[in-house]
Amino acid sequence: MWPGGDVKIHNSFPTHYLPYNESISFEERVAQIIEWFTSEEPINLGLLYWEDPDDMGHQLGPDNPLMGPVISDIDHKLGYLIQMLKKAKLWNVVNLIVTSDHGMTQCSKERVIELDQYLDRDHYTLIDQSPVAAILPKEGKLDEVYEALADAHPNLTVYKKEEVPERWSYKNNRRIQPVVAVADEGWYILQNKSDEFLLGNHGYDNALAEMHPIFLAHGPAFRKNFTKEAMNSTDLYPLLCHLLSITALPHNGSLSNVQDLLSSAAPKAIPYTQSTTLLLGDDHLGELGQEESYPYFLGVSLGCVIVIVFFVIFIKHLIDSQAPALQDTQAEIAQPLLQA
Ligand SMILES: [Zn+2]
Predict the structure, then answer these.
(1) Cα 40 to Cα 251: distance, rounded to the nearest angstrom
(2) Which of 106, 153, 249, 336 is the right S-S partner for 63, CB 3.0 to 4.6 Å?
(3) What one-character DSSP code corresponds to residue 117?
(4) Ligand 1 geometric centre to CA of 279 (Å)
(5) Pick from 186, 192, 197: which is nearest to 107 by CA?
(6) Dist CA 111 CA 95 (whole Å)
(7) Cα 207 to middle of ligand 1, angstroms
(8) Which residues pair with 316 in a beta bridge?
(9) Residue 316 alpha carbon to ligand 1 centre in Å
(10) What CATH number should be reported for the domain whose range is 112-201?
(11) Rounded to the nearest whole angstrom, what is the distance from the C-alpha of residue 193 to the centroid of ligand 1?
(12) What sections of the protein cross the membrane (predicted)?
């Protein structure tokens, strides 16, 4: 149910997996993961992926009004997921994370950077495309290709591999090509204007707000009614390792960046700010104010879902004795999570 779930890593497969298949309905995916969590030998980590709004976001562009029904559908799917978790008596014992690997921005045929205008196709191979063109110059053509592109277009920034900014943690892998050309937000790199073009895309500078994914978490391990300005997706890995009590392998994230999300963290008053990170509690909204409902807050956050893939991670909480008893509120089921 997860792209790549059927790949052997470190010589092993997940305990259970389904080869990734887009034609399996969301309801079937939910039923399968709940079955794995409630079987005689329950799993402790389950991953569920859903293709939208990534699929439709690429086709339509995130600013297209036709994305409204797509988001509304995802809202209902999230509601269904919560409903099924409650029915299986898992809602209070699993830690649920709803997140994505990227945002998305609107592209336009008016904002195309055409490599054919600047480079001879015989001088390079295009390994990866917009918005980060990975360019492998032919033997002896590195400087020529780099210089031809360096000042070619005001909305294109060109780096030699060693010049790629540190903050992207992108330049030290053998897969990174000698020349990396990055488009400004909403600009599209094509060899020729007749090449395939998507109205929505991601992969731009991760400092851009439009590239930021959603992050929602609920469960005994997480603080309730807590929002956080931002976090790095690379911090998810140490967070998951911590929740599963396993030792993390070398990585680029930091558990200390996300420690404040955990219910075991020392409570401190953090003022509410509208952000992409939100932890949900079953209590009434308390410090967030009674007049604002879940749909309101989810609406703020799910604004980002318009532009992203979302996938869902369940982690069965291993030490539920730590958790205070949580109360169900029917309101969450009754109300759609997002008013489209
Ligand atoms: Zn995508």
Answers:
(1) 33
(2) 106
(3) G
(4) 25
(5) 186
(6) 42
(7) 18
(8) 94
(9) 28
(10) 3.30.1360.180
(11) 20
(12) 294-315
Nearest 5°: the CA angle 55, 56, 59 is: 95
Instruction: Judge contact between 83 and 90, C-beta under 8 A.
Output: no
Handedness of CA 280, 285, 286, 288 (dihedral sign): positive
Q: Each residue of 221-232: pLDDT tens digit?
A: 999 999 998 889
**Average pLDDT rounded to a whole number, residues 170-177:** 91
What is the 3 state secondary structure string of 146-176?
HHHHHCCCCCEEEEEHHHCCHHHCCCCCCCC
User: Per-residue DSSP letters for 46-82?
Assistant: EEEEE-TTHHHHHHH-TT-TTHHHHHHHHHHHHHHHH
Question: What separation in Å is there between the alpha carbon of 6 and the centre of ligand 1?
Answer: 20
Q: What is the pTM of this model?
A: 0.77
What residue segments make up the domains of the chain, in order of their start? Answer: 26-104+208-261, 112-201, 283-340
Token code pair at residue 247? 């030792």
CATH top-level class of 26-104+208-261:
alpha beta
Contacts of 39 (CB under 8 A, 6+ apart): none
**Assigned token pair, 203:** 């992969």
Grouping H, G, I as helix, E, B as strand and the rest as coil, residue 21 is coil
- How far apart are the C-alpha atoms of 109 and 151, rounded to whole Å? 21
Q: Are strands 156-160 and 179-183 parallel, antiparallel or unpaired?
A: antiparallel
Q: Which long-range contacts (CB under 8 A, 24 or more apart) does 121-124 make?
A: 121/191, 124/179
Q: Same CATH topology for 26-104+208-261 and 112-201? A: no
The residue behind tokens 């952000």 is 275
Distance 327 CA to ligand 1 centre (A): 37
State in Å: Cα 107 to ligand 1 middle.
Answer: 13
User: Do residues 126 and 133 touch, judged by C-beta distance below 8 A?
Assistant: yes
pLDDT tens track for 1-47 = 777 888 998 899 999 998 888 899 999 999 999 999 999 999 989 98
Kindly report, residue by residue over 43-82, the tens digit of the pLDDT. Answer: 989 989 899 999 999 999 999 999 999 999 999 999 999 9
* DSSP-derived 3-state class of residue 270: coil
The DSSP letter of residue 9 is B
C-alpha of residue 203 to centroid of ligand 1, in Å? 9
